[in-house]
Amino acid sequence: MTSNAGDNAALSVALVGFGTVGRAVARILCNGAHRRLQLTHICNRGIARKKADWVPDGVTWTEDIDVVLGSDADIVVELIGGLEPATDWIRRALEAGKSVVTANKQVIAQGGAELAALARRHEVQLGFEAAVAGGIPIIHGLRQGLAGDRLFRVLAILNGTCNYILTRMEAGGVAFDAALREAQDLGYAEADPSADVDGQDAQAKLAILSAVGLRCPIAPESIPLHTITTVDAIDFVYARRLGCTIRQVSRAQRSADGRVCAGVQPMLVPRSSALARVNGSRNIVVVEGERGGETAFSGHGAGGDPTAVAVVSDLEAVAAAPAGGADNLLDGAAVPVAEAFESAHYVRFMVNDRPGIVAALAGVFARHGLNLDSVLQDPGGRKQQLAFVMTLDPCDSGIVNAALRDAAALDFHARPPLWMPVLA
Length: 424
Ligand SMILES: NC(=O)c1ccc[n+]([C@@H]2O[C@H](COP(=O)([O-])OP(=O)(O)OC[C@H]3O[C@@H](n4cnc5c(N)ncnc54)[C@H](OP(=O)(O)O)[C@@H]3O)[C@@H](O)[C@H]2O)c1
Fold this sequence. Notes:
Blueprint: E1 11-16, H1 20-30, E2 37-43, E3 60-62, H2 65-69, E4 75-78, H3 86-95, E5 99-102, H4 105-121, E6 126-127, H5 138-145, E7 151-157, H6 160-172, H7 176-185, H8 194-197, H9 200-213, H10 233-241, E8 244-254, E9 260-270, E10 282-289, E11 293-300, H11 304-320, E12 337-338, E13 342-351, H12 357-367, E14 372-376, E15 386-396, H13 397-407, E16 413-422
Parallel strand pairs: 1-2, 1-4, 2-3, 4-5, 5-6, 9-12
Antiparallel strand pairs: 7-8, 7-10, 8-9, 10-11, 13-15, 13-16, 14-15
Helix pairs in contact: 1-11, 3-4, 4-9, 6-7, 12-13
């Protein structure tokens, strides 16, 4: 190592992964404003095509991770993404006595506790601010800013791609596929958008927030997911009539008896709520504590520059305290997760019309003890693929699902019903 805690010498930084975020981090480190940090290595496969003339001459370019691990770099910044070889490289960097900063949500959600323990054993740091909500300082906010409270709820918009698609569907009255294509054309969505729209991306981030914020570690794959691909333009019309819009919401809640409910799904959110006001690719995290009440963190959840700001902030935190080891916020055995949130519900049916449909569905709900709050249907609509909505009084989402399984057996559906909770 080139320096120790208390030294004034800069810490040397090795960047592993020179893509969107890696380049933006290098730009910040090369602009001279961060005197405690010096970029010394850039590692990427096919390195020849990656070289940039604005990087100082003294920086070593390599495609061999062993050159980085065998160097005297103090901090390794992992920005290649994916589970492997990223996890292996982080593990080896920590074992080599180097602090690690990563933006990798999958690595931290799956193996963060083990890596943090390794960092503690080697008395180095593990920073992962950029792994959740890009440029929003949510990990530092929870770790330091709200350490004095006991949080019991996290409510968040964690996926900018979904938020862009849903806000476009709302503003332009366009179908899901058209909004997705637009997001892809603008670079907001991948060619394969499934991890975003089906919820796995937000799932990993929510697992990290549950561990750090609620002190409830949960296995990411145990968080129930519901895709946004089933949301239709007509749902925004009915949502508006109910004073709401639609967002992909990630939520986790710890109850007094230690049970954890969590889920990632499209939800109706009141237009007056903070979540409804988050437009385009932005993110928001709202946490609720026993003493401090509600606190909201909002900003750019992705993008090279905002994410690089989070990475460099982690680097500065390491520079301020390079030794001492990572904290234990990710520790503990994973607790089981239920989806049993209590709320009002929106159910949209798409049917081939005939007499008796509303009565049949009301009968199914009644048999499950569910009370209808309203029935919404435009007069004079077409008879094929007719969309109408039933809203239900607050109840457990498990009961709604059971009722909808029964309702699915009825023979008038043109498409499966869409069920969304309504945020109180
Ligand atoms: N972009 C964002 O807005 C954002 C926001 C928050 C968090 N993150 C996270 O930040 C990390 C980096 O994302 P990114 O958007 O910068 O990705 P990216 O643009 O795809 O960059 C990844 C870089 O790593 C290189 N790479 C990938 N696998 C490698 C391997 N096995 N060996 C050597 N080099 C390898 C890639 O090389 P090639 O050029 O050959 O592909 C590329 O240069 C990911 O964990 C991501 O989830 C990104």
